[in-house]
Design brief:
The chain is α+β, with helices and mostly antiparallel strands. The protein folds into 2 domains: about 55 residues, no CATH class; about 45 residues, no CATH class. It is built from 3 helices and 4 strands. The strands form 2 sheets. It has a two-stranded parallel sheet. Strands 3-4 form a two-stranded antiparallel sheet.
Length: about 100
């Protein structure tokens, strides 16, 4: 149990370690929201053996990729999902999907 004002970056690493030890896990995949798995957390997770993650970029980061032409909006005419790479996110798999309700 953590105090209500304790941020995820302080609680996540020790909890991962507890899971790995308690269940003898060689691999852990975290799925978290943008607040839980931030770019700062990603740096820590990338240094932790046996930990992978799935999360979402914050809207500002997505806008930057769109403005730089990394996300090609015209591709959404043919399909609603595509994968791409960007040098700002080395060794990361970036997948974009279109939400028609938000379009």
């Amino acid at each position: 149990m953590f105090a209500g004002n304790t941020a995820d970056p302080q609680t996540l690493p020790p909890q991962i370690e507890k899971l790995q030890e308690a269940f003898s896990l060689e691999s852990v995949i975290l799925v978290g929201d943008r607040g839980m798995i931030s770019q700062k957390q990603i740096a820590t997770l990338n240094e932790t053996t046996g930990v992978e993650w799935i999360s979402a970029l914050k809207s500002g980061a997505v806008r930057k990729l769109v403005d730089a032409g990394c996300i090609q909006l015209d591709l959404f005419d043919e399909r609603k999902l595509f994968e791409f790479a960007d040098e700002d996110y080395p060794n990361e798999r970036l997948i974009v999907c279109r939400n028609p309700q938000l379009a």
